[in-house]
Structure formats: structure tokens, C-alpha cells
């Protein structure tokens, strides 16, 4: 419950600040009052999506090379592969570490006019949005640290969840290390797609049984 409150409160706060900052940045740096600098808007949007995709690629690399293969990184990350004894774990510090470049890029981009500012601001927003998405999918959907509602019913979301659960079994050498493209990463491994399909089918069968039992108890 403590983690859920922290996650929701942080998300609402960050999104509110991001929306307000985005609006005031373009208003503040407009050469003509009321004019929307389309080149800056385009640069910002491009880097928002680029930042999200780039973070998925970075997360895949960092997860394997820095958090699993690198001993100091594993010293923190191993808490995520062990039973949790409270609302938080040592591995959560990585979220704080990743927030530093995001905040720096957002701050620099907010204060800097023209396209270069839009690029930096967009990259910072992209990293931030990825972090929020990762928190809800990884911590909420996969590890059930808080409920995520109907997200868990979306078929592809189930595949993301099961793919990450396979990572925790170490059956394919830890693959997948990515999150949102973890399904594709796993399916590229011999036997990965078959294992994923099998576990997803088993999950859906258990869910169907649970729903039938709940309906019968009414």
C-alpha cells in the first residue's frame, strides 16, 4: 500500500509538472506572443518518442551488463530477485539514478530557447514517461506491488508480464532483459516463443477457472 501511494502520488505530481512546464516553455520562448514555434514542438515530440525508445534499449543493456554481469550493480539488483520484506527494495535506487539525467535534460531544455532546447526538453520528457510506464508495468503489472486495473487484461500486456517472469526463472540465460520489447527479445531465442505461448495459455486458463469459480459462488 505504501508503494502504491508513493507511485500514484509521484506520477500525478510529475505529470502535472510536465504538462505545465511544456506549456510555459513554449509560451516563454515564443519569438512572437501567441505564436507556436512549430520547429521546437516537432523537435520536442520527436525526442519524447525517441527518449522512450532509447530508454528501452538502454534498459535492456543496463539490465544485463550493469545490473546482472557487473558485480557492484548486482549487489543492488539482486534484492529484486529475492523475496521482498517491505514496500521497497534496494533495486529501487536505480529509478532515482535514472531520474537525474531526465531532470537535468528537462531543466536545461526548459531554460534554453530554440530547437536545441526543445530537443533536450523532449529527451528529458521521454525518459520521464518511460520511467512512469516502467513503474506501472514492471512494478504493478508484473510484480503486483500495486493493482493496475484493466491493463492486466490486455493480451499483449499479459505477454509482457509473462516474458519478464521468464527472465526471473533464468531459463534462457536471463533473456529477456528488456521490458516493453521483451516479448520480441524472447521470441528471437530458440524455444522462447513456445515457452512464452505455453505460459500465457496456462495463465489464461487459470484466470478463466477463477472467473468461473467466482461466478458459481454468486
TrEMBL record:
The keyword Cell membrane does not apply. Keywords: Carotenoid biosynthesis, Membrane, Oxidoreductase, Transmembrane, Transmembrane helix. One of its GO terms (cellular component) is chloroplast. InterPro entries: BETA-OHASE-like, Fatty_acid_hydroxylase. PANTHER family: BETA-CAROTENE 3-HYDROXYLASE 1, CHLOROPLASTIC. Belongs to the sterol desaturase family. This is beta-carotene 3-hydroxylase. The gene is PLEST003391.
